[in-house]
Write a structure and sequence with these properties.
With 364 residues, the chain is an alpha/beta fold. The protein has one domain: Alpha-Beta Barrel (TIM Barrel). The chain has helices at residues 24-36, 47-54, 77-90, 104-107, 109-123, 142-151, 164-179, 199-206, 209-221, 272-287, 321-349, 355-363, and strands at residues 11-14, 39-43, 64-67, 96-100, 131-135, 158-163, 227-231, 233-234, 247-249, 255-261, 264-267, 292-296. The strands form three sheets. It has an eight-stranded parallel barrel, surrounded by seven helices. Strands 8-9 form a two-stranded antiparallel sheet. A two-stranded antiparallel ribbon has the order 10-11. Helix 6 links the parallel strand 5 (131-135) and strand 6 (158-163).
Length: 364
């Protein structure tokens, strides 16, 4: 009997140029990803964009997931054709493709189910076809999202992408609405003068995020399908994102406050490192380490970090500001990646293996 433990799941990070500058920024990303041992998740709206990003891949064997355009909707035949084209392009090179869910998953479930079946039939014709992962993104009720994946359990090429930040923010919003009907907790960030007397309710609502994500993981894990996870933290009061969202934060961050709350001038995020460890343990117990992959979907900040061993890449740059901002973002991904790997290895060391993992070990 083979008693070797299962291999560790693929761990990836956002791999793109979100900061202005020439291609040396991607060379910097290639260097830092190679040093960190991270795979890449690439946002690509066109096949040409995917090939451009792939040329900077850290190594030929590093795992790749491709996040397709957000406007693709499975019920639309043109979108299905675009997904099929990407699947053919990435066959044998790409682990998975990610698309967003849509409200018609709830409003027209039979149409969405029929489209999923038709999409699966197309993907069946492609050798070494990547998975098509449908991401929790638009704010559906978590029960609706789970029910859809129960309905496609038999489809071999479609599965789930769980964005823990989106799910956590949804749970936080829902919990706060129960306390303050009609009020969006994420809108309070624009009303700082009103925050002090509301902080107890805000903190209470934020605590709903982790149990909601753990419950979602348990329900989806019971379906026996592979899954991809987008990992990032968040808080409804966060103003850190240049895109105005409340999540896509580092697990090591906090939200600064202009007043004192419980003896501190900061608010803790939904998960933090301890929450990340719990989530990873639940994922690996529920899905099995061979059936999951993780992407750190953390956005850049305005902070800078000296280039160090990468300074030669930017010898022709007079102003190193953007290069140092990119370097800081990459260091942030690396720091969170180390916490993610620690959580994975701690789970394996503790023997927290799913029934699927144990069965595979016995069979081996």
């Amino acid at each position: 009997m083979n008693t070797a433990p299962p291999s560790t799941p693929p761990t990836l990070g956002l791999f793109e140029k979100r900061i202005g500058g020439d291609d040396c920024l991607m060379e910097l990303a290639r260097l830092r990803f190679r040093q960190a041992g991270m795979g890449t998740e690439i946002h690509a709206a066109t096949p040409e964009q995917l090939e451009w990003d792939m040329q900077f891949r850290p190594s030929d064997d590093s795992p790749v997931v491709v996040h397709l355009a957000r406007n693709l909707n499975l019920v639309n035949d043109e979108s299905r054709r675009a997904i099929e084209a990407f699947a053919r392009q990435g066959a044998g090179r790409v682990r998975g493709l990610v698309i967003h869910d849509h409200w018609n998953m709830a409003s027209c479930p039979q149409d969405f189910l029929a489209a999923a079946r038709e999409m699966n039939s197309r993907l069946e014709q492609i050798a070494d076809c990547p998975w098509l992962f449908i991401e929790y993104a638009c704010g559906l009720e978590l029960e609706t999202f789970v029910h859809f994946f129960e309905s496609i359990q038999a489809l071999e090429h479609l599965s789930v992408c769980v964005d823990i930040g989106h799910a956590g923010i949804h749970a936080t919003r829902k919990a706060y609405t129960k306390i303050h009907p009609g009020t969006d907790i994420c809108a309070l960030k624009s009303q700082p003068d009103q925050l002090p007397p509301l902080m107890a309710d805000i903190e209470n609502a934020v605590t709903a995020a982790l149990p909601a994500v753990l419950g979602l993981v348990e329900e989806l894990g019971s379906l026996g399908k592979p899954a991809h996870f987008h990992l990032h933290d968040g808080h409804p009061l966060s103003t850190a994102s240049p895109f105005g969202v409340s999540d896509h934060l580092s697990f090591l961050a906090a939200v600064p406050l202009a007043f004192e709350c419980r003896g501190r001038r900061r608010a803790e995020l939904m998960f933090g490192p301890a929450g990340l460890r719990k989530i990873i343990r639940h994922v690996m117990e529920g899905f099995g380490s061979e059936c999951v992959s993780f992407t750190l979907e953390i956005h850049p900040t305005m902070d800078r970090l000296p280039l160090g061993d990468a300074s030669g890449l930017f010898a022709h740059w007079r102003d190193k500001t953007n290069a140092e901002m990119m370097n800081h973002w990459l260091s942030l991904l690396d720091e969170n990646h180390r916490r993610l790997r620690e959580a994975i290895l701690a789970t394996l060391a503790a023997g927290a293996l799913s029934n699927k993992d144990q069965a595979m070990m016995v069979k081996g």
